[in-house]
Amino acid sequence: MGRNRIRLSLMGAGLCLLVTSSMFFGSRCSFADAKHPAKGSLEFGAPENPLKGKTGNLGPFKTIFADIAETIIPTVVSVIPTKIDTVIYGNNPFGQLFGDPFSGESPFDFFFGNPQDNRKKRRAPQGMEKREYREQGLGCGVIVSKNGYILTNYHVVFGASEIAVKLHDGRQFRGEVVGSDSLSDVAVLKIKEHVDGLPVAYLGNSDNLRAGDWALAVGNPFSLTSTVTAGIISALNRTVEGPQKYQNFIQTDAAINPGNSGGALVDIDGEVIGINTLIYSSSGGYMGIGFAIPINMARQIMEELIYRGEVVRGWIGVSIQDIDQATREALNLGVREGVLVGEVYRNQPADKAGIKRGDVILSINGQSVTSGNYLRNSVAVLEPGSRVPITIFRDAKELQLQITIGTRNEGAITGMAGGSSRGQPNEATTRVVGQLGLTLSNPTPELRERYALGDSVTGVVVTAVDPKFDEVANLLKEGDVIAEVKVRDRESVPVRDIDQFVKATGSLKEGDAVMFLVVRGDNSFYVAYNAGR
Question: How far is Cα 361 from Cα 323, in angstroms, rounded to an integer?
Fold first, then answer.
């Protein structure tokens, strides 16, 4: 009985309802002979707040989130994209040949009747039905002008046949896409109807952000409109996809879930600092890591789409890669920051400026280059045709060059891959280079066929990698071609055969850093590691 009493007190009315429905159908949930206390005879809750007066030093911070929410929520709209598919069904498969069997006409009329009448019937067959299938999504957008321009994500509106925009006050309008940019996942909408005086979000300056700053996310997670979540900025300058995208994400732990895309990320002053875009999740829901496009990047793209109708990006014509410690040692870079040039495309701005493969770009237009992503984004915002200074590191020296910025053209870029000439092959031989963990061969016709190597590719072919060398196994694989070798304090040396490779690496001792230019498919890049590891 004692255990039963405990269970009753813990489960309360839920269990009570279960018992009464099975034993006392139709009666109320109450205990036998229980007396109700007189109304007002009991006191509920503690007589005094034990924390009264102890939270006064919070001052305005006590209401700051509520104040921000009150201001920003009306500027964030629901974006409702609809995809429409039209399908035509034929309920009578014989209708095109014989017409409608329930029309009273003989099917033999098709063969023996008036040909003109038959053709007319075939043009308008009976039993055909057209149906529309509508698939509706939900995202967000931020109002950026009083007359109805809205900033959102490309992936929110991509493929939509219709777009509805619903305001916080319940009004709903038709929206149209002014422009979109898949490389940055930014899109701009415009309300079709005449509107004016809409609430407009204040756009802040995302360049001033620091990890640890307060952040609030506003949007429609799981269709729960006008939801506000709070957190901090967890990190800056994040990239989460391939190098073909333009990314510089703000990472936040303010809860972002499906439906938040296109909504506002705001700071403690209520200024929009980002457009919520992605989440990191293994379940599809919140896991503490969300990403937003910095508002400075989103605004620049938005203005290009509105004023130009397209996004025009700068381009210098190189493929680049970040520098690890082994590469730093091989190049004798010291503490310098920069990115390594893996390929220079012919007749493009970098080639015309005198930049070579193996150079390290230290700065451009007076801005220090800290990563490949930073250089990519910095070049993208430079005006095509402008001439800017660029600093490179080559053969232990810093060089100052001038480069004229070109225009990025996706189609042309695709055709440039593998554009550098690499000479002709030599005769075959194979050698194991033990201290580097590699088995190498000159490119024979058989190897070219096996690894799909073009005739222009020269160097030595990696035919095996010693798995005991952890660094090498993570960097190189069978079928790679080593085209150049760079040893610390020496110039980069092209290698066309095994003998040249052995000569270039013969002085290496265990622990020495070495860097290779590797050709893999249509791409070339540098790898560096320490001999004997």
Answer: 11
Q: Out of 78, 180, 261, 492, which one is annotated catalytic?
A: 261
CA distance 344 to 318: 5
> Which one, of 164, 166, 182, lies nearest residue 174 by Cα?
164
Q: Is 155 a catalytic residue?
A: yes
Residue 28 pLDDT grade (very low, low, confident, very high; cuts 50, 70, 90): low
- Condensed to tens digits (0 to 9), the pLDDT of residues 178-211 reads 999 988 999 999 999 999 999 999 999 999 999 9
The stretches of 139-202 forming alpha helices (DSSP H) are: 154-157
CATH no. of 62-79+138-161+172-311: 2.40.10.120
β-sheet bridge partners, residue 368: 363
Threshold 0.85, pTM exceeds: no
Which helix H or strand E contains 298, and what residues bound it?
helix 295-307
Domain-wise residue ranges, the chain: 62-79+138-161+172-311, 81-135, 314-416, 430-530
Q: Which helix (H) or strand (E) holds 331?
A: helix 325-331
Q: Which of 180, 184, 185, 363 is catalytic?
A: 185
Whether 385 contacts 405, CB under 8 Å: yes
Per-residue model confidence as pLDDT tens digits over 204-259: 999 999 999 999 999 998 888 889 999 999 999 998 876 667 888 999 999 999 88
Catalytic, 196? Answer no
- Among the listed residues 78, 155, 234, 363, the single catalytic one is 155
Domain spanning 430-530: CATH superfamily: PDZ domain (2.30.42.10)
Q: What type of residue sits at position 420?
A: S
Closest CA to 265 of 151, 374, 178: 151
Active site residue 194: no
Q: How far is CA 420 from CA 153, 319, 443, in A?
A: 37, 12, 18
